[in-house]
Amino acid sequence: MDDSRQSISVDDDKFHSKTEELPKNPKLDCSRMQSGLSDGSIEVNQPLSSSNLEGKSSHLSPLSARNSIDNHLVHHSSMMPLSGVHVFSIVAYNILAECNAGREFGNSPWVEPEQLAVEYRHRNLMHELKFLDADIVCLQEVGESYFKTLASAMKCIGYEGQYLRRKGVNIPEGEATFYKINCFEKLSSKEVIFSDVAEKEINSLDLDSEIKDELRTSVASHAVMLLVKLSHRASGKIVNVGNIHVAWDEFKRPDLQCVQIALAMRELADVSETMKQPSIMCGDFNCSPGTAPYQLMETNRLSEEHLTALKKVVLDNTRMSPLATFWPRGFSYPKVSMKSAYATVLGNEPMTCWGLPWICALDYIWHSPENLTVKNVLETVSAKETEKGIPNAIFPSDHLSLKAEFIFN
Q1: 106-162 pLDDT, tens per residue?
Q2: Spatial distance between the Cα atoms of 170 and 103, rounded to a whole number of angstroms
Q3: Is the separation of the CB atoms in 71 and 373 below 8 Å?
Q4: Helix/strand/coil percent split, the chain, to 5
Q5: Helix, strand or coil for residue 198?
Q6: What is 215-231 written as a DSSP string?
Q7: Phi, then psi, of 106 in degrees rounded to 5
Q8: Looking at the whole model, is its pTM more than 0.85?
Q9: Which of helix, strand or coil describes residue 50?
Q10: What would you report as the CA-atom Rg of the chain, rounded to the nearest whole angstrom?
Q11: How far apart are the C-alpha atoms of 244 and 293, rounded to whole Å?
Q12: Which of 11, 59, 82, 339 gives 20 to 30 Å between its CA and that of 69?
């Protein structure tokens, strides 16, 4: 949830001007990189279990015992190609940055301080990512200093990736997008700094300078999105992937969240030729079904009820947000359709955030249904596993990972 800007690439990215490569090390110890500990106390090829982490039992971790749930419409259709040539998978996961872990959960009764340490959580995270085994992995809240450790470990299991730090001197975390090099080739990428994009458009408005100043103040945010255009090696298809972390602000700024979603969708529509190319937008949207930001993502529009409510958003106990009143275009984007993978298969969105007191659905995988069909989604864990609060000895984050498998239409 938590609310910088720097891009780092693990691979040779001629499309990026601000990149940094990992040190070349032909003798890289992948076991240690994935365990995160110099003593390699947990072998990376061991299945993740509670006994590995707590020494109390031997049952398989609930994170590694999840099953895929099929889209019954696909599996009853003879028209859909189900071969691996046309299929790929993607994960969205807010992994809880180390700069936020101690501050938010240091006094939580359900987790020990050592279980919040980046080394401990890295070990659990790598086991989970190996289990997920996705072709594309979109992570949010990746610590800037942690990225190199993570990228080295991901390189050992066949991934390359790119990092974009969130905007702000005191925000040392951001988004990281990884892809399997035997499955995808990266064609290009784009950094989207929402406050910069919004300010540029606000500057062009025919409004009084005082109103423009209020608008610029209202869109100030750390939030960013990393857009990556990938070529699927087996099919030759192109897929555009937006990795996003929408502003949190304790859920008090749905107006700002709507603007960021609209700007993100404009950028995605632009690079995908208005969704003529397969496209995915995934990550931590910091909004739940039924809210204005979710509705905007789901339907491409806002109801009159939501628009009225957005005009009443209070900024500092005295001022109303000017966004919905003076910049209505900030809430619009091209007429394109996006569907939620989980809502398509399950009929609802799973609860993905269990960092008490917050228990809600915040994370989503959205796709363009005209050229992508969701084949299946990975179930999340049962509420009994998380109801006491996460992160903990087994769960490395306060969020749960999502995974969907798609078919190129």
Answers
A1: 999 999 999 999 999 999 999 999 999 999 999 999 999 999 999 999 999 999 999
A2: 14
A3: yes
A4: 35, 25, 45
A5: helix
A6: HHHHT----EEEEEEEE
A7: -60, -30
A8: yes
A9: helix
A10: 21
A11: 13
A12: 59
